[in-house]
């Protein structure tokens, strides 16, 4: 069972949601089943839904938390709001449409725990295998990933996968902009942290409708890519290390 409300959980699962009333309760129940025995909370960020998405979350147990945007802000804004409100130092994200199987979350956690002692680790990104999307969507995604990878050299095959695990403090260091969630590996590396990868499964959407078209992704992605390239070229190159009096005395001796 999740940790008691008075005690901070080990990790927070953050889910941006828009008009997912048909599937959100079932998704959260699957997350609970996949994470049984662990210490966690689930934060659903309702990004201006026009259906009962929020009501479905509020009808659940106490560790299902609901945040609601007063105006539609987009997926990156929803993730940012959820991370900022999280009570845990470690964040897991996935999409609300059910195409990121929650049964894959333990795989991400295992990969993180294997490197938990490494302070340089900032993010482990899921990379989808055997995509369950239309052929047109797979082609568009493949083209976008090829262009992005060549331009940013972020070492990531698939940045569109919602399944990710990262440190809250690292995420909040990153520059916020709309659609930033698609560039997290490059942004985390820009901040000086290491990025790991885990192959994860992908599922068909069983309810609701996609919030993007291939044309929308292409047009927005072209502008965002130029912006991220600009950010990478202007990253802070120096890191400060505190020098104590003891350090100075040791240098003198």
Automatic annotation (TrEMBL):
Q: Which keywords does this Swiss-Prot/TrEMBL entry list?
A: Cell membrane, Glycosyltransferase, Lipopolysaccharide biosynthesis, Membrane, Transferase, Transmembrane, Transmembrane helix
Q: Tell me the ranges covered by the Glycosyltransferase 2-like domain, including all copies.
A: 12-171
User: One Pfam family this chain carries?
Assistant: Glycos_transf_2
- Record carries keyword Transferase: yes
> A single GO molecular function, which one?
undecaprenyl-phosphate 4-deoxy-4-formamido-L-arabinose transferase activity
Mind telling me which GO cellular component terms the entry cites? Answer: plasma membrane
Picking any one GO biological process from the record gives: lipopolysaccharide biosynthetic process
In short, the EC number is 2.4.2.53
This protein's record includes keyword Kinase: no
Please state what the protein is called.
Answer: Undecaprenyl-phosphate 4-deoxy-4-formamido-L-arabinose transferase
**Annotated organism of origin:** Pseudoruegeria aquimaris
């Amino acid at each position: 069972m999740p940790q008691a409300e008075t005690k901070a959980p080990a990790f927070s699962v953050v889910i941006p949601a828009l008009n997912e009333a048909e599937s959100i309760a079932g998704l959260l129940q699957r997350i609970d089943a996949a994470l049984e025995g662990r210490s966690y909370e689930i934060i659903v960020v309702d990004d201006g839904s026009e259906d009962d998405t929020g009501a479905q979350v509020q009808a659940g147990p106490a560790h299902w938390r609901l945040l609601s945007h007063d105006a539609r802000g987009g997926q990156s804004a929803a993730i940012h709001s959820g991370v900022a409100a999280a009570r845990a130092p470690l964040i897991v994200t996935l999409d609300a449409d059910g195409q990121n199987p929650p049964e894959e979350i333990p795989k991400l956690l295992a990969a993180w725990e294997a490197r938990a002692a490494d302070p340089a680790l900032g993010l482990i990104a899921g990379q989808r295998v055997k995509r369950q999307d239309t052929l047109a969507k797979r082609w568009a995604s493949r083209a976008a990933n090829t262009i992005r990878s060549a331009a940013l050299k972020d070492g990531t095959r698939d940045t569109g996968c919602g399944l990710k695990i990262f440190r809250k403090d690292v995420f909040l260091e990153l520059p916020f902009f709309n659609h930033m969630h698609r560039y997290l590996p490059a942004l985390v590396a820009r901040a000086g942290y290491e990025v790991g990868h885990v192959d994860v499964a992908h599922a068909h959407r069983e309810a609701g409708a996609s919030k993007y078209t291939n044309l929308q992704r292409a047009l927005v992605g072209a502008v965002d890519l130029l912006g991220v390239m600009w950010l990478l070229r202007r990253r802070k190159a120096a890191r400060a290390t505190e020098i104590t009096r003891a350090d100075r005395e040791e240098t003198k001796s």
